[in-house]
Amino acid sequence: EIYATADLAARSLADHIAALIRSRDAEGRPTVLGLATGSTPVRLYRQLIRLHREEHLSFKNVITFNLDEYYGLSRSHSESYWRFMQEQLFTHIDIRSGNIHLPDGTVSRGEVFSSCRKYEEQIVAAGGLDLQVLGIGRTGHIGFNEPGSTRDSRTRLVTLDQLTRRDAARDFLGEANVPRHAITMGVGTILSAKEIVLLAWGTGKAEVIARAVEDPANDSLPASFLQGHPRIRFLIDESAASLL
Ligand code: GLP
């Protein structure tokens, strides 16, 4: 779906999420959302905050699972995804703190495996992801599933690609400060969501969007695996669509 502006795309997805939350509320069931970080979903979060303030959209029965977290950063670190989500969304809405989940980037190496397995179990116990929101990295990553990630991969510790670390360098005031590892939901975890929506804006994403949509699905571009999902939409602006 190609929109004239990123804001229109973000608005459309926010309205869709609001309708989902309200219909599940009416059935007395929680809504389980998979959320993403990066600059792309910020517009979506602004729209959700607006719907909360102006149209009484409640997040009391919403459970969230974020895609990923840098490994080795404390929650309070200025670039942790925990902090990002608090600042961009959670502190502005009425979500219960116990319903918020992010991979734990602070566990020791010896605890990573069980921590990742627990994350997967928590998603299943919540009833599975109703809707997963995604951005896309220039390497074709979704979450932090870099090239080489398999279709059936699950939550795990990964090594970040050099281009991904370079793209993050500005936020960390230098590439040397960017963590080398992260914990991410796997491609298989993402594909287990009942519905997936990927957002992308700007010419910088045009090439990777064209490849994700038009190349045969393969592990050198993990976002291409989304092609196999029965309910996947890419909501993009005209610049991100310019090479399609
Ligand atoms: C990071 C995140 C991804 C995100 C990507 C793109 O690598 N782990 O989930 O999609 O950045 O970021 P941006 O939206 O800032 O372009």
UniProtKB/TrEMBL annotation:
What's the domain of life for this entry? Bacteria
Keyword tags = Hydrolase
In terms of the parent sequence, the fragment covers: 17 to 260 of 636
* Sequence intervals crossing the membrane: none
Question: Which terms does the UniProt entry file under GO BP?
Answer: carbohydrate metabolic process; N-acetylglucosamine catabolic process
Q: Which residues form the Glucosamine/galactosamine-6-phosphate isomerase domain?
A: 6-227
As recorded in Swiss-Prot or TrEMBL, the protein's gene is named: nagB
Source organism: Oleiharenicola lentus
- Which protein, by its recorded name, is this? Glucosamine-6-phosphate deaminase
**Record-level Gene Ontology MF annotations:** glucosamine-6-phosphate deaminase activity
Hydrolase: is it a keyword of this entry?
A: yes
